[in-house]
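Quick one, tokens below:
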């Protein structure tokens, strides 16, 4: 038998660890012995019931995880012992998102990775760079690939570009790292003096305190001159107005998260008058993951892991994520 954390009712306090059957993989499928899972804000929303209240219960949460191949079904090319991560979008291999994409995502509606064993289609997993620890590798499927898709797959970020990131969550810190890897200048926001210093240590050129400087979008625009080339927007409607103010005419705002709000009155005039491209980012596809892995292996870039929780500390891990104290990714060690 194996185990899985489950959402039986909405709320962090309602999370339960329960036994589950360990199935054999069928044709074209592999069974993973999970090693680590990382938490995303989407996972927290799912646990709270504010992402999809129609989700089928009980649901195994967490979209991100890495494991070792323990058994393979007929027709698989992967070998026992290989370390792989699950693709968040199990049906998206390349190109434009397929119809029905949201029905094939891990951690809702499909069972997530916060379990000791998982059976997935071989096409729904991908090898991860060997030099990364299990905790680091577990952060790649959502946070890393989202930042990569925004800046590289769709953003085509290059040397000398100015990129603005918001906060110090997983996506934002990966965006800092990938932007610097592309040779871009990076600006960031935070309300913490300590986090601001850590951002500067990573190579961020300028950090704006969004509490002391609520018009941080204007400040970022003036710092660069005409405005930044690209904003990695993780706040949603609550921060979008400032992001639109920060970006240059013809620049790009990558819409990723809803940390600040999902609905709020907003003028679309800046989008029209400045001819801004607003690009939605829904993590990314397998082809992008493969390209990102090549860049990671070539550069040796290491994900920023803030804290690792043990298997029995899952509720505490979600509470810590909700507190906003983290700098980088929150990971659960699967034992």
């Amino acid at each position: 038998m194996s185990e899985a954390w489950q959402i039986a009712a909405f709320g962090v306090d309602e999370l339960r660890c329960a036994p589950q059957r360990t199935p054999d993989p069928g044709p074209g499928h592999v069974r993973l012995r999970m090693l680590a899972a990382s938490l995303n804000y989407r996972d927290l929303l799912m646990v709270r019931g504010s992402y999809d209240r129609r989700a089928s219960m009980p649901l195994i949460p967490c979209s991100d995880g890495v494991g070792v191949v323990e058994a393979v079904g007929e027709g698989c090319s992967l070998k026992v012992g290989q370390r792989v991560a699950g693709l968040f979008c199990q049906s998206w291999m390349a190109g434009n998102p397929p119809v029905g994409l949201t029905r094939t995502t891990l951690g809702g509606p499909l069972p997530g990775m916060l379990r000791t064993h998982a059976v997935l289609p071989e096409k729904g997993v991908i090898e991860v760079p060997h030099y990364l620890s299990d905790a680091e590798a577990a952060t790649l499927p959502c946070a890393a690939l989202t930042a990569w898709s925004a800046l590289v797959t769709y953003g085509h970020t290059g040397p000398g570009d100015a990129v603005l990131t918001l906060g110090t969550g997983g996506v934002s810190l990966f965006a800092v790292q990938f932007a610097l890897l592309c040779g871009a200048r990076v600006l960031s926001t935070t309300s913490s003096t300590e986090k601001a210093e850590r951002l500067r240590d990573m190579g961020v050129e300028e950090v704006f305190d969004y509490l002391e400087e609520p018009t941080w979008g204007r400040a970022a625009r003036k710092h660069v001159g005409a405005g930044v080339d690209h904003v990695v927007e993780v706040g949603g409607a609550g921060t979008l107005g400032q992001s639109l103010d920060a970006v240059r005419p013809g620049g790009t705002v990558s819409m990723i998260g809803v940390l600040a709000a999902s609905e709020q009155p907003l003028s679309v005039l800046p989008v029209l008058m400045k001819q801004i491209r607003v690009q939605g980012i829904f993590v990314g596809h397998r082809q992008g993951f493969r390209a990102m892995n090549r860049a990671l292996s070539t550069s040796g870039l290491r994900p920023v892991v803030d804290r690792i929780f043990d298997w029995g500390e899952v509720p505490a891990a979600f509470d810590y994520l909700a507190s906003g104290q983290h700098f980088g990714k929150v990971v659960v060690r699967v034992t």
